[in-house]
User: What shape does this take?
Amino acid sequence: VDEDAQECLYALSWTSSGTNTPLLSVGGFRGLIKVIDCSSGEIKTTLMGHGNAINELRTHPVSPALLLSCSKDESLRLWNIHTSTCIAIFAGDRGHRDEVLS
Assistant: This one.
């Protein structure tokens, strides 16, 4: 699915679309999050915003459209994967002093 030879994916989280299609969110070295439609094998969307590698991805247990990402850029981001929107950024001055692992 991902043709980027320089990418190394090591974080993932399962969820589903509004029509119960299985979706797999993956992230890694490049700091991009790709949401893959597992039925078609196509990348549904790419979420951009982190300035460094993605360390962890977690899907909200009640609202499957919400995805939380933790990054080496010392931030966490809350995404709506259905609209490809970053809802909130948890970082800033006197916030995390090192990369967020999980």
The CA atoms of residues 37 and 92 lie 33 Å apart. The mean pLDDT is 88. The longest strand covers residues 9-16.
